[in-house]
Amino acid sequence: MSRHESRRVMHEVRMRRLAVRRVERLTPHMQRIVLGGAELEGFFSGAPDDHVKLFFPNDAGELVFPKRGPNGLEYPPGADPSPMRDYTPRHHDTLHGELTVDFVLHGDGPASTWADAAKVGDVIGAGGPRGSFVVADDFDHYVLVADETGLPAIGRWLEEMPASASATVLVEVPDESDRQVLFTDAQCDVRWFERDGVDAAVSTLLEDALRGVSPKGDAFYWIAAESRRARNMRLMLAERGVPKEWVRATGYWKADGTDDEDE
Ligand SMILES: Cc1cc2nc3c(=O)[nH]c(=O)nc-3n(C[C@H](O)[C@H](O)[C@H](O)COP(=O)(O)OP(=O)(O)OC[C@H]3O[C@@H](n4cnc5c(N)ncnc54)[C@H](O)[C@@H]3O)c2cc1C
Predict the structure, then answer these.
(1) In this predicted model, what pLDDT tens digit does every residue of 168-198 receive, in sequence order?
(2) Which CATH class for the 137-253 domain?
(3) I need a labelling partner for 207 at 20 to 30 A (CA). Which of 31, 38, 68, 238 fits?
(4) Contact residues for 253 (Cβ-Cβ < 8 A; gap 6+)
(5) Which CATH number is associated with domain 7-131?
(6) What single-letter DSSP state applies at residue 40?
């Protein structure tokens, strides 16, 4: 096998109905929700930046799921579809049949609103993960960069990293009280940045910090942030000559008026 070979692994997609088992306010802007139920049987997530498609009740309070048809996902004619959003499987406990998802409470939108009010017994739908991007484990260094939407993936990644790995982690959160305790065996330099009232779509804290990061040896860069910001950081690394296979920059959300697509 050649060096630094990341690979994509595909999984069979299933739709599941899952019920809330526990709700925990991790920090002022992060709600942890533990989901469970018989339909979690067979769930598999193979990498920290996997995502599940979560389906929330529509305006009538109903869950209306799509089915895969010849033209992709299709809803029954005339149906009011459930809003669908992407979320990271933060932790999967196979023993107890539980899936943990951490929701940013950003104050708007069906997912954030649902998570803010979620209570034990509430039911949502989950589809996927459809695939996993398994990053090569032979890089000299890993640079993980994210706003709070990427924090669940970073938390999981650090927990799964071996002691031999080394990482620089740049995390931007609304304010100091949104910092989390992150656990890892890896040699890790975690740097927190607080926006303190600046809009997450226009902040440049991560960009400024990334400019100053120059790891020794071959480094893999993982970036998750607002779409335009993720793309700008990818361009910054390209201009620096970092091979594009060593960068995974994903727009995790879009500010209003942004129409660009990132990965
Ligand atoms: C692969 C992947 C994994 C993700 N994992 C997670 C995760 O584990 N936890 C998590 O919380 N999010 C995660 N996200 C981001 C999440 O899908 C988006 O933030 C999503 O838009 C939230 O949906 P909503 O219904 O709350 O808001 P929407 O209806 O999508 O948006 C409503 C309004 O809120 C704005 N908005 C949306 N998200 C944010 C935000 N984070 N901060 C400020 N304004 C926002 C929009 O611009 C819009 O104006 C992930 C995204 C991807 C692509």
Answers:
(1) 999 999 999 999 999 999 999 999 999 999 9
(2) alpha beta
(3) 31
(4) 149, 226, 227
(5) 2.40.30.10
(6) G
